[in-house]
């Protein structure tokens, strides 16, 4: 069972400090240059210490770097255990087990995904802001445009029917001449003359003729 008592927690924190400081100052192994100790868990019986580590450069993605670091830690296990025992003053120093920590790598990948998604969103926003239609300002027709076209078409049809005339166009002068002709016709249609009203002599002369 892993450390759930205060003493196991204190020893775990001590092991983490000792290993981290000696990797930099004592081991001098290039394979451990980017290695970071992320956590240490000690069992309640103090028999085993699980040491979790990762790499600063890019956790877990460089498989070759990860394997080289794991090999270097395993090779330095004895020396590091001796350093921990000397520093902690323990009668029995826990065995060290180095385990690659997947969590920081996954968190780093999630951060990369979030950053990439944010950059894509910003780029799309800039493209939308700078976008211009080819040709018309808006090449797509909308429902209101079709309604206006129908109204204009009906208005034109009404005007055409109102202005439509099958015969010739009559000018104002022709209308005035037409009125004068009607007056002339009306003037020639006088009432019949009563023969009794005529001059007798004129009647005789007319009969002789």
CATH topology of the domain at 6-102: GMP Synthetase, Chain A, domain 3
Strand content: 5-15%
Please summarize the sheet with the most strands: 3 strands, mixed
Q: What is the strand tally?
A: 3
Number of helices: 7
Strand-pairing-aware structural class: mainly alpha
Average pLDDT for all residues: 73
Point out poorly predicted stretches: none
Q: Order of helices and strands, N to C?
A: HEEHHEHHHH
Shape: rod-shaped
Task: Describe the protein in words.
It is a single chain. The chain has 209 residues and is mainly alpha-helical. The protein has a domain at 6-102: K homology (KH) domain (GMP Synthetase, Chain A, domain 3), CATH 3.30.300.20. It contains seven helices and three strands, in the order H-E-E-H-H-E-H-H-H-H. It has helices at residues 6-27, 63-75, 77-88, 102-130, 143-163, 172-188, 200-208; strands spanning 35-42, 48-55, 95-100. Strands 1-2-3 form a three-stranded mixed sheet, sandwiched between helices. A hairpin with a 5-residue loop joins strand 1 (35-42) and strand 2. Helix 1 (6-27) crosses helix 3. The longest helix has 29 residues, at 102-130. It is rod-shaped and about 140 Å long. It starts with 5 loop residues before the first helix and ends with a helix. The mean pLDDT is 73. InterPro entries: KH_dom-like_a/b, RbfA, RbfA_dom_sf, Ribosome-bd_factorA_CS. Keywords: Cytoplasm, Ribosome biogenesis. One of its GO terms (cellular component) is cytosol. Residues 160-197 have a biased composition (Acidic residues). Residues 131-209 are annotated as: Disordered.
């Amino acid at each position: 069972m892993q450390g759930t008592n205060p003493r196991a927690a204190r020893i775990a924190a001590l092991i983490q400090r000792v290993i981290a400081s000696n990797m930099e100052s004592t081991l001098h192994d290039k394979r451990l240059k980017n290695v970071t100790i992320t956590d240490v868990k000690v069992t309640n019986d103090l028999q085993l210490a699980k040491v979790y580590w990762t790499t600063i450069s890019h956790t877990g993605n460089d498989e070759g770097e990860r394997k080289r670091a794991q090999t270097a830690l395993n090779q330095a296990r004895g020396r590091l255990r001796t350093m921990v025992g000397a520093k902690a003053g323990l009668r029995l120093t826990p065995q060290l087990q180095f385990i690659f920590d997947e969590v920081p790598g996954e968190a780093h990948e999630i951060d990369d995904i979030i950053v990439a998604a944010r950059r894509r969103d910003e780029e799309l926003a800039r493209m939308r802001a700078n976008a211009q239609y080819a040709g018309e300002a808006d090449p797509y027709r909308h429902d209101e445009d079709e309604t206006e076209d129908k109204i204009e078409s009906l208005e034109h049809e009404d005007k055409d029917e109102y202005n439509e005339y099958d015969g010739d166009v009559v000018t104002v002068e022709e209308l005035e001449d037409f009125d004068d002709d009607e007056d002339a016709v009306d003037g020639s249609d006088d009432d019949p003359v009563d023969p009794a009203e005529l001059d007798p002599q004129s009647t005789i002369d007319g009969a002789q003729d």
